[in-house]
Structure formats: C-alpha cells, structure tokens
Amino acid sequence: MSYNVQPLRTQQEINDFLFCLRRNKNADRDVFLFLIGINSGLRMSDIVKLKKQDLISSKNPRIVEKKTGKTRILYLSSLQDLIQDYTKDLAPEDYLFPSTKGGHVEVNTVYQMFQKVAKLLGRDDIGTHTLRKTFGYHYYKKTKDVATLMEIFGHSSEKITKRYIGINEDEISETLLNFRLGF
C-alpha cells in the first residue's frame, strides 16, 4: 500500500480543513492541534505528547524529537496569543491534547479524525503528515529557502525536502504551463 499524503496548498484548503475540525466534539483541542502542526512542522508523534510546560517554558522552547532523539527549537512567537488563550486553564504538567480516556490523544486517533475530514472534503491524500508537509510547503513558497527548511526537517538533501513537500511537481507544472514549441 502506498501513501499519497499531500500538503494543503492553498489558504482555502486550510480554511476548509479548519471548518470541518470546528464541528468536532473536541473542536478547541483539534483546531489548536492543527494550528500547532501547520505552524511548527513537527511530526504528529511529537505534537500529541506536548504539555503546557513545553510551550510556555521560554520564548523559543526546545523539545526532543521522538523519531530522531534530536533537540528541536520551536519558533512559535507568532502563535503566543493563541497559546496563552488555549493554555490559560491548564496546569503546567497537563497535556495540550488530552484524550477523553486519559493521557494524551494518540497519533492513530488523530489519523482517524483526519480521515473523517478528508472524506468530508472528498480527498484521499490526507494523513497526519499533512500538517508537517503543509508547514514545509508554505514555508518554502514564502521564503524559497530550502536549505533552512531542510535543517528544520532534519533531511539530508534539498532534493528529499522538495520531494517531501510536493514542490517538485508544482515547479515543473508552473515552468511548463506556457511552454510550447513549434507554434
């Protein structure tokens, strides 16, 4: 089975996804999770286990990534108002994304929630990595700085990073849009 998880490439796609999440039983949690994901580029396995103290410990908090074991600095200054509002009633040791069964929400639970949103949107290319890829896609489109993005993602080459965020196909399509010979 191959996976075709893609980023949300337009603001409208992001808005549509948020529209669906806002109708969930745990809408505040789910929307906050989504916004942290598309603004940080973290893997879902690192997002779900975040606690209040992880984000409010400093202006640029550090976490240890589950997959790589590397320390990662989070640059979330643009989200400080949202973070303060969402966490105001939480204790420092509380999970940001609690499960109704105790502990934190599991990655598979988030995946299932995203599959329901994907079905509502008529898409078959949504998964938990959609948030990470959305961050990367928009970061690259805004900055064209693949070297920094490669560092953020911990990738070993620019080629891997561009393929990961789906830029290669977009750029090829754009360059060939009006390319015609012999007319």
UniProtKB/TrEMBL annotation:
BP GO terms, sorted: DNA integration; DNA recombination
Pfam family, one: Phage_integrase
Domain Tyr recombinase: 3-177
GO MF annotation list: DNA binding
InterPro entries, per database record: DNA_brk_join_enz (IPR011010), Integrase-like_cat_sf (IPR013762), Integrase_catalytic (IPR002104), Tyrosine_recombinase_XerCD (IPR050090)
Gene3D superfamilies noted in UniProt: Intergrase catalytic core
Source organism, top-level taxon: Bacteria
UniProt keyword terms in alphabetical order: DNA recombination
Name this protein carries in UniProt: Integrase
